[in-house]
Amino acid sequence: MRKSTINQIAPLNYDEVFELNELYADKKIIASHREHLSRILKDKNPSEIDKHVSNLIIKDNSFNLIMQNIEKNFEFNLDKEEINAIVSNIKSSSLNKKNDANEKTISDDKIEMLAKNIIKRDLIFEKLSKLWDIYVTDTEVKNYLNGYYKSTNQPIRELLNNKEKFEKIRASIFNEKIIRELLLRFKVKLNLNKKNNDEPKFN
Questions:
Q1: Which residue(s) pair with 190 in the sheet?
Q2: 48-71 average pLDDT score
Q3: I need a surface site. Which of 73, 168, 181, 189 has the fewest CB within 10 A?
């Protein structure tokens, strides 16, 4: 059971417009996007895949900008044990592994900040799901898995029969629904006309 808590201290302003001036991206996440899209969009050529990746980078940056701005409407009480558990997961994940000898692992301070942001995001998502009446039914999860099977021909029986894996799929669909609703409800204005601002800066 989650010990961290959230409290809304101000109403959300859906009329506010957030301006996106620069794009930021992580090389590992870009590689992950490209690998995933290449697997599910087998009929697309590399330039089309790159266009999809660019759209995902803009989507990710727009989402991050919205979250940074609406976070001020909430106050948080973050549980230390919960933070430590997520820090441990990040340190053992592929996000913190080097692809080559020249690549640095993420610093401990940055990992802790990332862990706190993950908890805050989840708390905000839970609050918004109640506010906007967003949830994911078993049928939605099964339909998603059936679609995944049809597009990839990968077996899904284990995902259907393993409760933990089934719930992870539900959580992924839930997060995507909240993100989609955030991008619909809040306005982001792209202003990438300055030199090199349309090229992502790598974290």
A1: 20
A2: 92
A3: 189
